[in-house]
């Protein structure tokens, strides 16, 4: 017997299962973001130092994560860690690690960009009143850099959330993987179920990402208004 | 078999994947630029009705993952009677995604034209259309070149997601070979080199363009 497609979402525990998958997705994105942001801030500050070898290494780290597509990064870690380093991680932790390293790379560039765009005279005034390097960063550069960083960081968060859609490729039970299971299990009774399940997942992603990118846009606009008077 | 032999034997297959990645990227990027120009113009001129539609499109496209957009096109659309082959789905998906990124880039460029320029234009009596034609567009498009280059790199990387609908591009080729012969190190190596060949020159060009536009507007 054919049912209308949309009812597939609410049969049995289907809806709860999809929400459970969404939770896995959100958790991985959140942990990766927190770890990646902290590591990225440290790397970003290091990249403003004058130590040349350090800067070259960090730049190469950034470029590697920028040039290799995230799908490929996931598979690199998925195949190479267990085989070459005998390091076995479950899929969700592996994905968290890859995303955190990727966030750290992107974040280091955001932080560096914000720090070097603080006007030179600020740095010099700080030195003139006798601040040491730690104090200069802590009281002069970082507070001023933050207003530049925040919109870019929120945008990075929306990218990470969108990228979690790749989790299914390394068999993590995320919202898309669960959606596929529900579609396959109900294909006979609900032939149009695929439309509603993917439609709902589409909506989930939009509902998480849209408020974030709206917020980033608003902050950016405010900052520009302040900068241009 | 030595790693080197494995790599050599895989090169003809990777070559095909490489060509397909380049071809799909090329078509997708051209389409994205066209959609981006149309959408940014609709928004710039506030075309009644259409500019709200353009904004909705931009938000939906930018705030959802390409993978779900592709699944929707490939698996859900046939249910309502609209069917494309995988490669066409990939191209449509990439243009749907890329169009909004390009549009945002152009809009950013238009907004980047300084107020003084607009006011001078008005002061010499240019009409709204002349202002757009002679002042905003020429400067706006050149200001948006770095954003466009960054989007091109982004879109080429996104083609790796085409593997989920089994388009035999670079990533799909590597995953297929790994599935058949279990030599993951060798095939992943070729895969990374393949993307590096396309993307390293582009990212160098992007850095140069950013410097050039910066020089154009700040003189340093």
From TrEMBL, chain A:
TM segment ranges: 20-46, 58-81, 93-115, 195-216
Entry-linked NCBIfam families: HEQRo_perm_3TM (TIGR01726)
Entry annotated with the keyword Phosphoprotein: no
Family per similarity comment: Belongs to the binding-protein-dependent transport system permease family.
An MF annotation (GO) of this entry: transmembrane transporter activity
A Pfam cross-reference name: BPD_transp_1
Keyword Transport: yes
Location within or outside the cell: Cell membrane
Residue ranges constituting the ABC transmembrane type-1 domain according to the UniProt record: 22-213
UniProt membrane topology term: Multi-pass membrane protein
Broad class of where this protein is predominantly found: membrane
Taxonomic superkingdom: Bacteria
Protein keywords: Cell membrane, Membrane, Transmembrane, Transmembrane helix, Transport
Protein name: Polar amino acid ABC transporter inner membrane subunit
Automatic annotation (TrEMBL), chain B:
InterPro entries, per database record: AA_ABC_transptr_permease_3TM, ArtM/GltK/GlnP/TcyL/YhdX-like, MetI-like, MetI-like_sf
Gene3D superfamilies recorded: MetI-like
Gene Ontology CC terms: ATP-binding cassette (ABC) transporter complex
Keywords: Amino-acid transport, Cell membrane, Membrane, Transmembrane, Transmembrane helix, Transport
One Pfam family of this chain: BPD_transp_1
Entry's family note: Belongs to the binding-protein-dependent transport system permease family. HisMQ subfamily.
Protein name listed in UniProt: ABC superfamily ATP binding cassette transporter, membrane protein
